[in-house]
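Anyone? Bumping this.
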Amino acid sequence: MSLAVETEKLVKVYGNGKTMVKALDGIDMKVPKASVFGLFGPNGSGKTTLISILVGLLLPTSGSAKVLGFDVTRESVEIRRRVGLLPEGFGFYDHMTALENLVFLATLDGVPSSQREKRALEALEAVGLKDRADAKVSTFSRGMKQRLGVAQSLLKDPELLIFDEPTVGIDPEGAAEFRNLVRKMNRDGKTILLSTHLLYEVGMICTHAAIIREGRLLVQGSVDELYRSVREAKGFRYEIRVKPGSDMPLQEIRSIPSVIEIARSDNRVTVLSKNDIGSILFSLVTKNPYKDIVESLTPVEPSWEEIYRFYQEGG
Amino acid sequence: MLKNALSIARKEFADAVTSKRLWLIAGIFLLFSIASTYSTSFGFRIGARQTTRPMVQIASSIASATAYMAPLLGIALAFDAISGERERGTLRILLSRPIYREDVINGKIMSALAVIGLTITISSLAAVSVSILLHNISVTVDDVSRIGLFILFSVVFSFAYYALSLFVSTFSSKSSHSLVISIGIWIFFAFILSIMSSFIATAILGPPPTRALTLFNMSRRQFGNFTTPGGATPQELEEYLNYVRKVSEISGAIQAFSINYHYTQITSSLFSFVAGPLGFGRGEITIASIPTILSTRLIDIIILIVFPIVFLVASYMVFTRRQEK
């Protein structure tokens, strides 16, 4: 597996003596190329510190990290040449227009002068702000500034995009637009590392995820792997919807050896099993007497709250 | 590296020349300079003042205005140079580009030097031009050289405060803190230290010899010129002058910690006539030549140059080593 980011035993300590705080405590993280990698953790868990180290804004206390094959301590400029960053709590020059801001930043990104304005306009178009190119940033709403933030990260056409809490403070519509943009960029082959404290965001757009808490990585892997681990540990859940008013006989389902629990409410039956019994249930509900009563059978994925709680409690 | 620093400098310069803050300070600067030169040159015109070198005295009045305004100009440009970027979150965006931290600080310094240089040069030349045009004051080559040197030293002086304020800005998280600290340091150097130095000198030497002081004051009242002693014996007068000299020495030694003191020493040498001992009204005799001034004020010039360098180095060290999340 080709990696965009790889860290090994990464430690970051702030302060010293009594004021010492270990922000990162031996992080081993692997972000596959062309993935949307969600770095989930509560506020203060070390996400921003980790991202700052990855782009060379902070130096690690110990351990090592490589981004796109470049060492974060020795080759941070090379990393920033190839990585688009949307930092948390960023700002723009309010007295300048959106286009002026982007052209200035494109200059620092090393974009040739003949292409700066074109690239800036393309980035504005990608985030739906092209019609506001000549408006001063001071007139922008928070959501528009956030989109402009994404636009500035696209200027250098980066291989890897790192977004730190990108949807904080923007309305649901803006957040949905942002997620669509992330999906589109990922389809275009870009790797996206997304830090968030919003669990649902991980579930909605990420192909891979890691959970960080108090500077430690609790788990990482593909989203499917994370679901599977939780299911294996907590059981497989299925939901059977039956026609309203019909009486569903449950004896046959109860007789499946790995079934732990069956719960019924209205026209919904929930089955919890130690093992994956999806195929058994399917063959069951497609024959009599269930065939005429059952409307649907769906496996229920664990929620991200469950996944987080599961790993927080030690996996 | 230079390319990135120049890009930042260009943006900073454009921001500065369109900034209301800079125009306000430059306007006050210009107004003060023109007002002080106008009143001086008007004095010559109506005959209230007489001198063999009118432009030197006019430039001297510009120097008085510059001594107060140049530090404010430097502070106005620097107090939020780094802390403002930090507050607005633009520093994070800047530092996420493929540039070095030095580029950011170098760009800001280049722009500040250009703005300070232009503001002081334009203000000083405008003030001098007003005198030349309105009151027919003639200018010699020596005058032009002195004004040129004055502008140069004033730019360095203003830049010294820029460097000091930039240093404060590098470790401040809020621009308001940086502004208060910078203005506080300016007030201390410009006003408090000179008052303190007199107090300390008097505390060390004790009160002046009373009889000598009384007789000295009497003689001044009676004759308006102490070279004609009015009752004070030559010994008493000498005793008093010795006391004043010592006060001046101690006070000068204390004020040597202030950059303002060194700047004033240089500019007053450039534009002052060599007078009698301690300058007590012996009248104009001559004006020291530029090479003489440069050699006698070499220490002041060195301190004026070293001061900003020290704070620039400190700013570099703080800013480049500080880790921004």
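Late reply, but here is one note on the structure posted above: Chain A is about 35% helix and 30% strand.
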